[in-house]
Design goal:
alpha/beta, binds N-carbamoyl-L-aspartate, 5-stranded parallel sheet
């Protein structure tokens, strides 16, 4: 593995290998930290808002004993002076051993990888993909189910058009057998054709039946910043609100995931229900990113 650019680059075996390394990383985290990446530097270039993704990348590198340099606001980047991304990447690759990039346009990570002499990790490229999020999503799912062995029904709810985490997870989870996928969204933000496969279900209503039958409900925020039409956003912003009553319809051992941040699509009261696993899911980001950094740098 040279770069992490898209969910479609991973085979089932590679995914299982990453999860095994991530489990080793969990042990390191329990003990405190390691020196595995001592002397190595991670650059985080985040040209779109982020809290958990950037901080979990940086925490991962620090827990591995490495160092971090960061650019978190495109306003202060030379790109504001007109520098193209490829040039910025060439320069940053002189400073760091590995780069984690969040950018505004789908395809940016790929372009960056062509210009880079060091590994690039796509930390979200516009409405494109977010493969490290789906690694931690899948790692979380694997902790609760016998992924690939038992039949699982996964329901994606919310903004499936612009939600890059959905694009990546829907792609990545297809490496495993016995997965049945439902996409539930208003027509205006329904899943793009290219992520659909034969056998998937596409619906506009989140019915009680769907909630009762799902093993995994993956809810997402309506991606306000990606709408060109404010009226359209107003029309869909309250499309699905998962409250205590709705989530209680899910089986007790079913799980509710969300990449976070949430706005209004999961009410605060839901956090106390047994199905609510989104904070546990976010925590899994650190060992997963430690695993990726060590693999990409050839340290494990
Ligand atoms: C997601 C993202 O940035 O795509 N957040 C994250 O990285 N956990 C989801 C979102 O912003 O809605």
């Amino acid at each position: 593995m040279n770069h992490v650019l898209t969910a479609s680059q991973f085979s089932r075996k590679e995914l299982l290998d990453i999860f095994l390394v991530a489990e080793e990383m969990e042990k390191i985290l329990q003990k405190g930290k390691s020196e595995l990446a001592k002397g190595k530097i991670l650059a985080t270039l985040f040209y779109e808002p982020s809290t958990r993704t950037r901080l979990s990348f940086e925490t991962a590198m620090l827990r591995l004993g490495g160092g971090v340099i960061s650019e978190t606001d495109v306003t202060y980047s030379s790109q504001t002076k007109g520098e193209i991304l490829a040039d910025t990447i060439r320069i940053v690759a002189n400073c760091a051993d590995i780069i984690s990039l969040r950018s505004r346009t789908a395809g940016d990570a790929e372009k960056a990888s062509e210009a880079s002499s060091v590994p690039i990790i796509n930390a979200g490229d516009g409405a494109g993909e977010h493969p490290t999020q789906s690694l931690l999503d899948l790692f979380t799912i694997q902790k609760h189910f016998r992924l690939g062995d038992e039949p699982l029904r996964v329901t994606f709810v919310g903004d499936l058009k612009y939600g890059r985490t959905v694009h990546s997870l829907a792609t990545m989870i297809r490496n495993f057998e016995n997965i049945k996928i439902s996409f539930v969204a208003p027509q205006e933000v329904q899943i793009p054709e290219k992520y659909l496969m034969k056998g998937d279900t596409v619906q506009t209503e989140l019915t009680d039946e769907v909630l009762k039958q799902s093993d995994i409900v993956y809810a997402t925020r309506i991606q306000k910043e990606r709408f060109e039409d404010g009226i359209l956003y107003e029309q869909v912003k309250d499309a699905f609100v998962l409250d205590i009553q709705k989530v209680s319809l899910m089986r007790e051992n079913a799980i509710l995931l969300h990449p976070l941040p949430r706005v209004n699509e999961i009410t605060l009261g839901v956090d106390a229900l047994p199905q609510a696993k989104y904070f546990e899911q976010a925590r899994n980001g650190i060992p997963i990113r430690m695993a990726l950094i060590t693999q990409l740098l050839g340290l494990v």
